[in-house]
Amino acid sequence: MLSLACASAVMAAAGPDPIVATRQSSMKEMAAAAKTIAGMFDDKLAYDAAAFKAAAETIRARTGPTLIAEFPSATLGAPSGAKLQIDQARSEFEALARHIGMLATTLAAKAERAPASITDDMRMGSGPAMGGGSLLGKRPAAAEADPAKVPAEHLLHLILQDCSSCHSKFRQKSPVIAD
After folding, report:
1. Fewest beta carbons less than 10 Å away: which of 5, 19, 70, 167?
2. Dihedral pair phi/psi, residue 82, rounded to 5°
3. SS3 for 64?
4. Cis ω for the linkage preceding 128 (within 30 of 0)
5. Alpha-carbon Rg of the chain, whole angstroms?
6. pTM value?
7. pLDDT for 121-137, tens place per residue?
8. CB under 8 Å, gap of 24 or more: what pairs does 162-166 form?
């Protein structure tokens, strides 16, 4: 027991794996960026084209191949929140990361050309869904056919939907170590 406690203390003193720390930082930055963009579309934050552009670029820069690279096999499982199942379903995980990256790249391109104020074509709108989607606003056919035709607000929702899907399958609650 004593040697286990000492080993745990040494590992804690050494700090987290640098890749895990980078990954956690990336996730926090993406969450903050998504919250910024959502706040602008929800009118909880004042719209600012430069802030929209910066937030969209933050998400784009941390998805796709960058996101995949932040999950090497050696960093999965405790004490990180990344499940070991990522390796068992690596192709599914990477497909999600690439899809999020494609959506984020499209969102960043739209943000690059963002006008001084939010326009109707940036919003999901309250009219009928495009491309045979549901009344809840999901537009999978339109988004898959040409995401560039999807409003920026909807792209953000699709990105968040992919993030939720990935987290529900591949993320675990990190164990809490009691004193």
Report:
1. 5
2. -80, 125
3. coil
4. no
5. 19
6. 0.80
7. 999 875 434 444 443 44
8. 162/96, 162/99, 162/100, 162/103, 163/30, 163/34, 163/100, 165/96, 166/93, 166/96, 166/97, 166/100
Tokens for 86, please give them.
């990522």
Cβ-contact 65, 101 below 8 angstroms:
yes
- Residue 104 CA to residue 106 CA, distance in Å, equals 5
CA distance 111 to 69: 25
Q: Are 161 and 46 in contact (CB under 8 A)?
A: no
In this structure, which topology does domain 17-170 adopt according to CATH? Four Helix Bundle (Hemerythrin (Met), subunit A) (1.20.120)
pLDDT in tens, the chain (179 residues): 333 333 333 344 445 789 999 999 999 999 999 999 999 999 999 999 999 999 999 999 999 999 999 999 999 998 889 999 999 999 999 999 999 999 999 999 999 999 999 999 999 875 434 444 443 444 445 456 789 999 999 999 999 999 999 999 999 976 544 44
- Nearest Cα neighbor of 37 from 55, 58, 63 is 55
The amino acid at residue 56 is A
Residue 20's nearest CA partner among 83, 66, 79, 90 is 79
Give the type of residue at 78: A
Specify which residues 82 forms β-bridges with.
171
